[in-house]
Write a structure and sequence with these properties.
The structure is a single chain. The chain is α+β, with helices and mostly antiparallel strands. Strands 1-2-4-3 form a 4-stranded antiparallel sheet. Helix 2 packs across helix 4. The longest helix has 21 residues. The N and C termini lie far apart (35 Å).
Length: 174
């Protein structure tokens, strides 16, 4: 798939088939994340945690349900894989920017290889101050959860959207 096609097909997947992605696919997505631009090339300011343990995913999902105030909300949508991106706590703003670049690279890479994905932020915010969950997710000391991406096989193939410049207002200064 060409980059433009992957970008046009990339969408937030909220329904997944009930089986795990392959190690090869996971590696390809992690490579996409590692290829993302990181401020001043300081890759050591980020950490990835791949979570595929169903029990832990369910705890993370439940914490998100509490955060959103609705037990019927399941912010991980039953996805079999969550990649948590943590950043240095001493510069959370930069960590958030870097995490966003990394997650989008992973999302486009996932689309390219036929996986569904969804950028997860609200649920990550919900678990940021839950020390027990952070320890279970192996968030290193001095780091905070910044963003996440859920991955799996989509129940429905994403459609290619028309590329446009009309969705977001553009102001030209020439």
């Amino acid at each position: 798939m060409k980059t433009k096609e992957a970008v046009a097909r990339r969408c937030s997947c909220r329904a997944y088939k009930p089986y795990q992605i392959s190690e090869k696919e996971l590696t390809i997505v992690l490579q996409g994340g590692n290829a993302a631009p990181v401020g001043m090339g300081k890759n050591e300011t980020l950490k990835f945690t791949v979570i595929q343990n169903r029990e832990l995913l369910d705890k993370i999902d439940a914490e998100g349900s509490k955060f959103f105030g609705d037990p019927n909300v399941h912010p991980l949508y039953g996805a079999p894989t969550l990649i948590l991106v943590s950043g240095k706590a001493d510069d959370v703003e930069l960590s958030m920017c870097n995490a966003s670049c990394v997650v989008e690279n992973m999302a486009i890479t996932a689309t390219d290889i036929g996986l569904g994905s969804c950028y997860i932020r609200g649920n990550i915010k919900a678990i940021t101050y839950n020390r027990e969950l952070c320890e279970a997710m192996k968030v290193p000391e001095g780091f905070v959860p910044c963003a996440g991406i859920i991955l799996g096989y989509p129940t429905k193939e994403p459609e290619e959207r028309e590329m446009t410049t009309e969705k977001i207002q553009v102001e030209y200064v020439r």
